[in-house]
Design brief:
Helices cover 30% and strands 20% of the residues. It is of the alpha/beta class.
Length: 278
């Protein structure tokens, strides 16, 4: 991103393995940020291969409190055209076999997830898009599919019938794990194609996606450039929300029965609630 001054690159170890790549810590317009390419530099990791637990845990360990997941998507609605920006407010999980929780192995937790994307961070993104005078489609359902193949026409038409707005491959389990890590999370998507439902449009191809990718990512960066100062601590751009205390009542395992090894792995996430018991 133009204007980003790289401070350092951090290689973070986690109890869940290695993140997708080194995390770039930098400064832009006075804001300290962390950037992690979810597919790794050079785009070498499939959506289903992304170690999302390690990614989110690593960002949490660095002190990240608010996270924007930027990614390409296919449009399922006529009005969402290629190169448009979309800010979904709901999420449907159609992935298969991805690990969607930090918990298990002796500690059980059930987080509230009726609003999968943080409304306060989403509101900041809206303000930033308005300031950039970029059209942003607000709201709609993002459906996350397994991939790596694109949709069949039957799947695409079925998603349209169900009223979904966009389809992608990475919002799950990012959103779920960010909530468990008590990180505010929003998704900023840019449309690269009409999936394969639209008559008169050629089926989605990698060539078409790459063609629209450059302009879409440029628009997303424009929005982020204005959103980051508002999201920074003390900037007054974002209000406190329930994401930061999502685990307060979510962990249901009696502390006396928690598996010690699992507690050590999860101490970064739950230690503030059970520090006196371990």
């Amino acid at each position: 991103m133009d204007g980003l001054r790289v401070v350092k690159e951090a290689r973070v170890k986690t109890p869940f393995g290695s993140p997708s790549d080194k995390i770039t810590i930098g400064e832009i317009d006075g804001c300290l940020i962390a950037f992690l390419p979810r597919h790794g530099k050079g785009h070498r990791v499939l959506p289903a291969e992304i170690n999302v637990r390690a990614n989110i845990y690593a960002l949490k360990s660095l002190g990240v409190e608010r996270l924007i997941g930027v990614g390409a998507c296919g449009s399922l609605k006529e009005e969402l055209a290629p190169k448009d920006l979309v800010l979904p407010d709901q999420l449907v999980d159609k992935t298969k076999g991805r690990v969607g929780t930090f918990f298990g192995d002796g500690i059980v937790a059930h987080v509230q997830f009726d609003q999968p994307f943080c409304p306060n961070v989403s509101e900041v993104i809206v303000k930033a898009a308005d300031a950039a005078r970029l059209g942003l489609h607000r709201g709609g359902v993002s459906v996350c599919m397994e991939g790596p193949a694109f949709s069949t026409k039957a799947e695409s038409l079925d998603h349209r019938r169900l009223g979904y707005a966009i389809v992608g491959m990475t919002a799950v389990p990012e959103a779920k794990l960010a909530r468990e890590a008590e990180i505010c999370y929003a998704s900023l998507a840019f449309v690269t194609d009409y999936d394969c439902w639209k008559e008169g449009e050629e089926a989605v191809t990698v060539e078409k996606i790459l063609e629209n990718l450059k302009e879409g990512s440029s628009r997303a960066q424009n929005v982020l450039r204005r959103a980051l100062p508002l999201l920074a601590r003390g900037a007054g751009g974002v209000s406190p929300c329930s994401c930061a205390s999502a685990l307060r009542y979510a962990v249901v395992t009696d502390p006396k029965h928690m598996k010690k090894q699992t507690f050590r792995k999860l101490k970064l996430l739950i230690g503030k609630y059970f520090s006196g018991n371990r």
